[in-house]
Amino acid sequence: MKKFIIAGAILMAFVGTAYANDCPNLIKQDEDMAKMMPGDAANMVKVEEQIALAKKEHEAGNHDASIVAAKEAWKLLGM
Known about the structure:
Radius of gyration: 16 Å
Distance between the termini: 45 Å
Shape: elongated
Structural class: mainly alpha
Helix content: over 70%
């Protein structure tokens, strides 16, 4: 039983670290797509707001919220 608990704790440590590294990649993809895709000004403002929110949440350590914001920007870009 102890082995399962230890293995679970180790797995969670690696998953959390990997998850934190996804945020910058998603944000970068959003920024690149926003530069390449023409869109109406109102929609692009929303995209920029979501990207800024994703960055803020990532820096605060809220990686789940950061990924949600980055994916919302992705949706607004029509992807």
